[in-house]
């Protein structure tokens, strides 16, 4: 299994597009996969969107941290949760890369 660990902090604008892109990429790998989203104390609707994805996509794992523990805290929680024999980190801060996901 492939696990992709994705720290999330106030990324409600891009979560759905990002997940759609991950599904396309990981489905083409022809191996079981999961995306472990770690909500790092978001104050927007990121957690609600992630829970919605989890409800409709069995590949989605959501880790909810009690507060903002910072980037490394979120990565650590995601790695501890990941079940894959191969794990990858998606550590790009979405706010900096928004243009990558725009039409």
Keywords:
34% helix; 4 strands; 103 residues; alpha/beta; 4-stranded parallel beta sheet; single chain; Spore Coat Polysaccharide Biosynthesis Protein SpsA, Chain A; 3 helices
The tally of strands reads 4
The largest sheet has its strands arranged as 3-2-1-4
Principal-axes geometry comes out as globular
Q: Average the pLDDT over all residues and give the rounded result.
A: 89
Structural class: alpha/beta
Q: If you had to describe this structure to a student in words, what would you say it looks like?
A:
There is one protein chain. The chain is of the alpha/beta class and 103 residues long. It has helices at 15-27, 46-56, 71-81; strands at 2-8, 33-39, 60-64, 86-89. It has one domain: Spore Coat Polysaccharide Biosynthesis Protein SpsA, Chain A (Alpha-Beta Complex), CATH 3.90.550.10. The radius of gyration is 13 Å and the shape is globular. The mean pLDDT is 89.
């Amino acid at each position: 299994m492939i696990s992709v660990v994705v720290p999330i902090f106030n990324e409600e604008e891009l979560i759905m597009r990002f997940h759609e892109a991950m599904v396309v990429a990981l489905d083409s790998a022809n191996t079981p996969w999961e995306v472990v989203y770690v909500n790092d104390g978001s104050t927007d609707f990121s957690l609600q969107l992630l829970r919605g994805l989890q409800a409709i996509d069995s590949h989605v794992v959501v880790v909810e941290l009690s507060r903002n523990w910072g980037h490394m805290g979120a990565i650590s929680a995601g790695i501890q949760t990941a079940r894959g024999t191969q794990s990858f980190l998606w550590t790009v801060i979405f706010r900096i890369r928004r243009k990558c996901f725009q039409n």
